[in-house]
Amino acid sequence: MNVANPTMTAIETPQMSALRVSLIGALFVAIGPIGMALYTPAMPEIVHAFGTSEGMVKMTLTLYFAGFALAQLIAGPVSDALGRRPVIMAFMAIFGGASLLALFAPNIEVFLVARFLQGVGASAGVAISRAIVRDQFRGNQSSEIMNTIGIILAIAPALSPTLGGVLVTYAGWQSLFLTMTLFGVFVVAVTHLGMQETIVADRNRLKFQALMRSYGKLFASRHFMTAALTIAGALGAIYTQATILPFILMDTLGMSPAGFGLAMILQSGSFFIGALSMRHLMKHHDASRLVAPGLGFILLGSAMFVTLFWGEPSLLRVMGPIGLYSFGVALVMPAMTTSALAPFPHIAGAASSLMGFLQMGAGLVMGSLAALFPDPVIAAAVLIPAMGAIACLSFLLFRRLPVFAEP
């Protein structure tokens, strides 16, 4: 490869094995859910700890989403220019520092700033994990790695609410942010010791005009936008649920923080089973053929959410639809992520960033709308099916486009 050629940024010979990329990629992606899911069982206690309102504590999630969504637009392109390793380490330093700030926050205002900065720090994980897969692998192999990342990733949100509930119950909410600080340090250490650089740095990409050209190209691509919006509708609903479920399960249904954590295993467990099923099915079917069945599960879960308009909510009526929806997301993500990134090997960081921004942005918008509903159950019955509809409509548009032949 000609290193001097600024249009060729990926290192063509894989620098890491598929297994190592899967493990490191899963670790990077897990940062976001851990920063969110580990915290959610503490939300009712935070209200009392700072003597503030429920609305202000919901804002801590909204600001986390905002920092996560907006900073991705910077993290990916900067990693295209400077390299994946230094950028992930810098953003993890922000995440760790923000976790310490939250730990020692004297009031809710400082706490809100800390949560925003945590989202900024965590944002690089999603953008860079997908970019390093696209840097090194193609086609079904890329989908298989995305699936492996999904399997490993499912463990983080499955365990995080449970661990968070136990820590809140026995060690107080501050222990959550000490745990996040240590996790940030661990990610930096793994990156330094175990990750090889996957691109040739090109500082020309730091120019504002180059950045705008990259995003302009992505926004103009119907292939990218329909694929990315399919994922945004599917995964954005999971992020939206994070702002609603603590108040449904703990306030409406009266569950304890530890009980909430255990209940959330139904969500992450369903995603985990879906990812395992996907891995088995990909031995006999192309990953792209499994997207439509996945969207079928998403539609079924969405329809069950609508039934919450009638009758009293229960654990099964709330978590059953979430389980079906999460199972469907696991079938949709590998192929659609690979499809979205495939045409853009030279701006993989920017493409991954914009895709992540759309996902988190969807969660941010829907989470903000959820705060306007007086009843979180009705918010779930309206907003989650809306996200499922966006995913399905986007995929129908994607299917109408010419088939992209990956290089």
Task: Give your account of this protein's structure.
- It contains 15 helices and no strands.
- It has one domain (18-198, 205-399): Growth Hormone, Chain: A (Up-down Bundle).
- The chain has 407 residues and is an all-alpha fold.
- It has helices at 18-37, 43-49, 54-82, 84-103, 108-136, 139-171, 174-194, 208-220, 222-252, 257-263, 265-281, 291-306, 315-341, 348-370, 376-399.
- Helix 3 (54-82) packs antiparallel against helix 14.
- The chain crosses the membrane at residues 21-39, 59-75, 87-106, 112-133, 145-170, 176-195, 215-239, 259-278, 290-310, 322-342, 354-372, 378-398.
- Keywords: Cell inner membrane, Cell membrane, Membrane, Transmembrane, Transmembrane helix, Transport.
- GO terms for molecular function: xenobiotic transmembrane transporter activity.
N-to-C order of helices and strands = HHHHHHHHHHHHHHH
CATH superfamily: MFS general substrate transporter like domains
> Whole-number radius of gyration?
20 Å
Structural class: mainly alpha
- Give the overall shape, derived from the CA principal axes: globular
User: How confident overall, as mean pLDDT?
Assistant: 82
Pick out the low-confidence regions.
1-8
- The CA-CA distance between the termini, in Å, is 16 Å
Count of alpha/pi helices: 15
What is the CATH architecture term? Up-down Bundle
**Total DSSP E strands:** 0
